[in-house]
Amino acid sequence: MGRKSKRGGGVKTGPPVKGEEKETDVPPTLSKSAKREVTELVTQLLEICSKPPASGAKELEDYPEIHGLVEKIRKIQSSVNSPPQNREELFPAFLEWLHKNGVDTSAVEIASFPGFGYGLKTTKDIKEADLLLKIPRKLMLTVDSAKMSVLGELISEDKILQVMPNVTLAMHLLIEFKVADSFWKPYLAILPHTYNTPLYLTPEELQHLKGSPTLGNSITQYRSIARQYAYFYRLLQKHPAAAKLPIKDNFTFDDYRWAVSTVMTRQNLIPGKDGEKQTFGLIPLWDMCNHSNGIYTSDFDIENDCSLCYAQQDCSAGDQLFMFYGPRSNGEFFVHNGFVYAENDHDRLSLKLGISKGDPLFEAKSELLAKLNLSASRSYFLHCGDYPVDGELLAFLRVFCMDEDTLRAEEKKENHENLMELETPLSQDNEEKVWNFLETRAALLLKSYPSTVQEDEIQLMQTDLPTTLQMMLKLRIGEKRILQQTASFTSQRKHMMKERSGQINS
Ligand SMILES: C[S@@+](CC[C@H](N)C(=O)[O-])C[C@H]1O[C@@H](n2cnc3c(N)ncnc32)[C@H](O)[C@@H]1O
Fold it and tell me: Which parts of this chain are annotated as the region Disordered (predicted)?
């Protein structure tokens, strides 16, 4: 992405107001026969992607077919993609735009940081909790600004745009990108032109995630974006409210995955204009900050209608500034943010667990779990660090392993918080079943990866590995360490139980 405007397009002084005429680039378009071919492929794509999503191994089965169709579409559309621009050359114009719109950037500079892309560095020594940036709402691309834009009419007619704010934001971004005199042009021009999200990976590359639950999540994301693309391609062709949109005749898959990836990797929750409901927005400059462990240091000043960014910690002039994106696992960072963070304090591995409907105690167990706001079938988590098992997983496993007598005795209690506490086991027998089950599950999951942690670590030491392969190796290593940690935790617990019951002498 990062297309050059064929016209100069002066910088505007404010976001568009509804009904305002838009100047658009004259976009390159496909020949009639190429368009026909794309339309046919899009129909096939929509058909496959609209089948109820298969689960388990089947979910992987139709992915090559979906990917193949998308690649055919991309090949035909490649003639209308233009080469990316150099982001760095466009930073001065971006900063000028920020200054013109009242942003004080004196505390920060945009700089390149190997392994992070670009980021923010401090220009002076700062103290934890110092205010670093104040970005007014009028500079943000938001669901509200989308409604006020040329896309507004289509939003009011289309259900998907009404219920999926991130999709609305992606379409808004893409449209503004094609508008030569967009108010946001200096910001749009400095956005990355490519990403490391799963939308940019081939089925062969994704094979490096074999055994990892992140493989299925990556494919689910690809499938859902392919379906959205096909849906919007047809909507843009057919809907009268799309007639004026600058993407009507040149809406490519590459454009859509770029817009979706931009939104996924940079969006933030902000209060809506009414000050009540939260909405999604892209916040210029603020979104140049990379992630590290820490705490949330952003706020929104409702009175002055601007977002505020505070320093996470003391920094010396020239240090990189970081922001905490949230307690996400590396699998989530990989799928939604296009990076993996080896030092992630919040890394965790999802574990799909369910009580069998064939269990004669299924109903009673489900009811008991519901009292703890837990479900009889869902993803639970194993965490990195010394305590991989949290209260929710522990309670699920204790209920899952209950025999009828233990279940009936538990039902008589007023509250069941004890089920979530490590040091309040129900019985020796129940606890033994819990740890045996988890030990076996962790061992099985470890076996499903084709390589060991040591082999991954050796591979990761190789120089010149593609960034995406490095990411997948780091992800696999983190997941396997969690499973190893789980295995040693379960054997510790079993040992402790035996000690306590006097089966072994301490
Ligand atoms: C909000 S943007 C931050 C600015 C971005 N680095 C840029 O060049 O525009 C988020 C993106 O930055 C990168 N990133 C953020 N934190 C990172 C980290 N801890 N390690 C590696 N990449 C990171 C990822 O590419 C992510 O998708």
Answer: 1-34
Find the DSSP H helices in 335-426.
362-371, 391-400, 404-411
Cα separation, 86 vs 94, whole angstroms = 13
Query: Tokens standing for 435?
Result: 């740890």
Question: What's the whole-model pTM score?
Answer: 0.92
Output the CA 90–ligand 1 centroid distance in Å. 18
- For 355-403, what is each residue's pLDDT tens digit? 999 999 999 999 999 999 999 999 999 999 999 999 999 999 999 999 9
Q: Give the mean pLDDT of the chain.
A: 92
Largest CA distance in the chain: 83
The full 3-state SS of 434-451, as one line of letters, equals: HHHHHHHHHHHHHHCCCC
Which part of the chain is CATH 3.90.1410.10? 32-80+141-282
Q: How far is the CA of 478 from the centre of ligand 1 (A)?
A: 19
Q: Is 337 in the pocket of ligand 1 (CB under 6 A)?
A: yes
Phi, psi of 391 (to 5 degrees): -60, -40
Q: Is 395 exposed, middle or buried (0-12, 13-18, 19+ CB in 10 A)?
A: buried
Which superfamily is assigned to 32-80+141-282 in CATH?
set domain protein methyltransferase, domain 1 (3.90.1410.10)
ipTM for the predicted complex comes to 1.00
Ligand 1 centre from 92 Cα, in Å? Answer: 20
Average pLDDT over residues 34-50: 96
Residue 129 tokens, joined = 């909790």
DSSP strand pairing (117-122 vs 108-113): antiparallel
pLDDT over 50 at 6, yes or no: no
Residues of the chain with CATH 3.90.1420.10: 348-505
198 lines ligand 1 (CB under 6 A): no
Q: Give yes or no for residue 288 CB within 6 A of ligand 1.
A: yes
